[in-house]
């Protein structure tokens, strides 16, 4: 599975961004896709995931502000981020969880939220 993420950038606090992650390769092996982030000096953390059945899960810190969705026809998962805060600044990574506990990662896209 190959993942190509895009959509990061610089935005003011309160603004919005949408991240996209296009998957290719062994698409049928994917059970869930999602987004993680890693801020400078911190560990990578889960932001949001969506399963192949459409179930979603969010970190408490983004609930009500971020929405994860997927377009199966395009093999793409999205992360709509609204009401962004400076503490959302991080490198965001797309993840695909596949069968046999295999994990695949995109290249990361930087999101910077200015105060």
Describe what you observe in this structure.
By secondary structure, this protein is mostly beta strands. The protein is 0% helix and 58% strand. The strands form 2 sheets. Strands 2, 4, 5, 6, 9, 10 and 11 form a 7-stranded mixed sheet that branches. It is globular, with a radius of gyration of 13 Å.
What summary fits the major beta sheet?
7 strands, mixed
Give Rg in angstroms.
Answer: 13 Å
**Cα shape:** globular
* Beginning-to-end CA distance, first to last residue: 37 Å
Give the tally of β-strands.
11
Order of helices and strands: EEEEEEEEEEE
**Helix content range:** under 10%
Low-confidence stretches: none
Average predicted local confidence, pLDDT: 95
Residues in β-strands, percent: over 45%
Tally of helical segments:
0
What class do helices, strands and sheet pairing give? mainly beta
């Amino acid at each position: 599975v190959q993942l190509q993420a895009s959509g990061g950038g610089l935005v003011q606090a309160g603004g919005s961004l949408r991240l996209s992650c296009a998957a290719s390769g062994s698409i049928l092996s994917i059970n869930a896709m999602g987004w993680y982030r890693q801020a400078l000096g911190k560990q990578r953390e889960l932001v949001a995931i969506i399963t192949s059945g459409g179930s979603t899960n969010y970190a408490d810190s983004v609930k009500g502000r971020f929405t994860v969705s997927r377009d199966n026809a395009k093999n793409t998962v999205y992360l709509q981020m609204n009401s962004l805060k400076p503490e959302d600044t991080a490198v965001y990574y797309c993840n695909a969880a596949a069968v046999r506990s295999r994990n695949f990662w995109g290249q990361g896209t930087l999101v910077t939220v200015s105060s």
